[in-house]
Amino acid sequence: MARTSLGEALMTWRAAVAPGDVGLPGNGARRTPGLRREELAQLAGISADYLTRLEQGRAANPSAQVVEALARTLQLTDNERSHLYQLAGLAAPGPDRIPRTISPGVQRMLDRLNDTPVAVFDAMLTELHANPLYVELMGNRTGNERNAAWRNFLGTAGRIRQTPESLGLLQELQVADLRRTAGRYPNDPNLHALIDELRRRSGRFDHLWESGPVAEHQATQKIIDHPRAGAITLDCDVLHVAGDDLRIMVYTAEPGSGDADKLTLLSVVHS
């Protein structure tokens, strides 16, 4: 199978990323260095089959969303990221686009929180990274479900227990957040596409968008209905990364509580 420049580059970059660099266990000796295809695909939110076809030259013209997810997961530098876009036949996003890169400093901090469910979202509320315990707690999200606003207006019910009142407040917060983001990044095409779809398909979103809610995310307590551990009550805090416009969502349990024990059990089971 004749490989393309895009496929060769993806394989080279994949081989250069150690599992520990992205929060995965090393699992002992490996036949080849770096990430396995299945690991990269899962972290980037694409299918392993599609990644295989990209690397083998049997697929071409990946979308900007796929390229950005691969660049982020592979921890490419700005120059490498631009080169990846060029190999994919796309123009690299400019400074007026929403940042979707996790800095090495933030990644190192995330790597030290293996016993805490943590996820990182960009300014349009798309999940960029979730550590293994967060995935175990919330489930693996792919495609449109990786965007929190899309999920809460158009997607399927997740594991977080919601009342009509709590869901309504969450939707108001997310619309307000997206409104502020639209003001900062008026030329981001992915953001425009998301807002257009939500306004077209959700009367609730369109109403909130027109009414212009003003709200800020605050610390909240959430109940997660886990399929094996049962109900777990956790505190949810959203931290903002200055300059990168990222949101880090952290879930913690009260020390010494039964919820803390359940979280510890999930961490042990997953490790």
UniProtKB/TrEMBL annotation:
InterPro entries attached to this UniProt entry: Cro/C1-type_HTH, Lambda_DNA-bd_dom_sf, MLTR_LBD
PANTHER family cross-referenced by the UniProt entry: BLL4672 PROTEIN (PTHR35010:SF2), BLL4672 PROTEIN-RELATED (PTHR35010)
SMART domains in the cross-refs: HTH_XRE (SM00530)
PROSITE patterns recorded: HTH_CROC1
Range of residues in the leader sequence: none
GO molecular function: DNA binding
Residue span(s) of domain HTH cro/C1-type: 34-81
Pfam families, alphabetized: HTH_31, MLTR_LBD
Protein name: XRE family transcriptional regulator
Domain of life: Bacteria
Gene source species: Kribbella antibiotica
